[in-house]
């Protein structure tokens, strides 16, 4: 070997390796495209009929997208017949909730009402669901889906009131008509598969632990562990269970096909995260909005971001903000921490001038 020759390090890609990887990348890309087309074909082979309770701004926003994949039926207190017709959906007034629930092909009901009125809406829904089950059979009960910003509260409400024959899916599309006006691609969609065929999926672990909700016992005596230590019930591969899973996956696939960032997460964990992100964002937006901040000719980029925060958070209803506070048990802790942090920062400013924060408190009283 010549004295100045550089020895090739062990593990260095050989000539042609990059070309080989590109070919493999193209092959995998083609395979993924093929699988996606197969998924779309399966999704459209039997289009879902999705009912939306609460056909206001957000209900219309998601309902219009659902029409690409199936049939949509909207219901609300106000008359949105024309809007529904324009997007190719059917509309039934909320005053005739029984007709809405008794629709023959109804597969899914999305409850898109205010978090403040969510519990009353579920209570109103229950008698009609029970009638549907009596007249059409247990397997006729639609999948019930929520889209609320607070998850533990709505999960508990649905488990408390809904007939056990109803499958439950808790979701939170973390976007809306303003933030996703150009499409859903890249937007975050959080979901928890909560109940299928009377099987409550336990979200407290990363494993799919199942608990049977039958009347005979609190837990099925026929549960067993697989080689991975996952608990199963012998009924979970029943026709009803498979059909329930298929319907749930079809509904989730709508969001996936629209490009959402799909995140499976327990309702409890969701509320812990959103208290530290969504609630504090809305809280700061409301506080700054209450100060009457306005644009000036010399705004910095930072201040423009502040004004955008004020605009987007105050565009949402106060009921939404109140719901984030009232129904998330972590919200008060966030408020306390924010107040303490503000006192700490202001205290350091006053300390520089040899003053105590009590002076500020006196001047504000």
Describe this structure in words.
By secondary structure, the chain is α/β, with parallel strands linked by helices. It has twelve helices and twelve strands. Strands 1, 2, 3, 4, 5, 6, 7, 8, 9 and 12 form a ten-stranded mixed β-sheet that branches. A two-stranded antiparallel ribbon has the order 10-11. Strand 7 and strand 8 (199-201) form a beta hairpin. The protein is globular. Mean pLDDT is 86; it is low at 205-222.
- Content-based structural category: alpha/beta
Largest sheet: 10 strands, mixed
Q: Low-confidence spans: pLDDT under 50, at least 5 residues?
A: 205-222
The total of beta strands comes to 12
Please give the share of residues in helix: 40-55%
Q: Return Rg in Å.
A: 26 Å
What does the secondary structure layout of this molecule look like, with pairings?
Layout: H1 17-45, E1 49-53, H2 57-66, E2 71-75, H3 81-86, E3 90-91, H4 97-101, E4 108-111, H5 118-136, E5 143-146, H6 151-161, E6 168-173, E7 188-196, E8 199-201, E9 210-212, E10 224-225, E11 231-232, H7 239-257, E12 261-264, H8 267-290, H9 301-315, H10 318-326, H11 331-352, H12 357-364
Parallel strand pairs: 1-2, 1-4, 2-3, 4-5, 5-6, 7-12
Antiparallel strand pairs: 6-7, 7-8, 8-9, 10-11
Helix pairs in contact: 5-6, 8-9
Give a short overview.
The chain has 365 residues and is α/β, with parallel strands linked by helices.
Fill in the keyword field for this structure.
alpha/beta; 10-stranded mixed β-sheet; single chain; 365 residues; 12 helices; two-stranded antiparallel ribbon
